Amino acid sequence: MPWQPPLGLAATVRHGYSRWMIFLRTPLLELAGIQATAAGFPKHTHDEYVISVNLGGLEQVWLDGSSFEVKPDMLTIYPPAAVQASRSLSGEDWQCLSLYVAPAAFPAYFDCLPPDLPSQLQRPDLAAALRQLATQDASLREEAIIALLARLPRQASSAPDKASSRGSLLVRRVQQQLLDDLSQPLTLDALAQQAGITPAHLVRRFHQACGLPPLAWQMQQRMAEARRQLRAGRSIIEVALATGFADQAHFSKTFSRFCGMPPGRYRQINF
């Protein structure tokens, strides 16, 4: 039976491959019900932590190079900027409830740095708590989310070996270079030359660390920045130029492909 959202939703948004039902949106939090088509979601990233529970259907998740099946009594947690994808295991649509948490929420609510959270949590109690948010009284929803976040277990980080540290440092430097000026897209040859390695070596190292080659990863960041600027009310042409597109038409076509709707439609949503 298809998932029927409760009454009183703040907004409904149709994407090319899914339908989104917005239950809550604040500067730090967003709660959305998602009905995804069988094709699922291609590789993409988010600016926020994404904490999800399935409401129906079977889903396989790809997260930073590893695949796993999502069970009904588990949470999946995607950290910010992690490359992720998913698809239906049954060939049918599936539904989930996703909580988007800005990294700044943790210092704001808990006076702590953004934590390292596990990607899979086999916790029926937490899965049930997340599901209940959809039917929670709207006036109590934000505090219920904060209570849920407080129950999430943190992961202890392990010290990497020297070789992986050097590789991570190189990737972080390239990432920073890609982020320094999103209005000026770089070439792979230029990135490799500045990193002191061959383009093939750079693509391999970056892909192993980030799940995408460097220019594809930068495109995800350009789209994330475009979404932020559109939400802030900037004009489409301003956003296009600020994110490295020569004209509005090229930007609009790319934005629609990555985000499931044209930028003008995205700006009209009540954020």
From TrEMBL:
One example GO MF annotation: DNA-binding transcription factor activity
Domain of life, source organism: Bacteria
HTH araC/xylS-type domain segment(s): 172-269
Keyword annotations: Activator, DNA-binding, Transcription, Transcription regulation
Protein name as catalogued: AraC family transcriptional regulator
Lineage of origin: Bacteria, Pseudomonadati, Pseudomonadota, Betaproteobacteria, Neisseriales
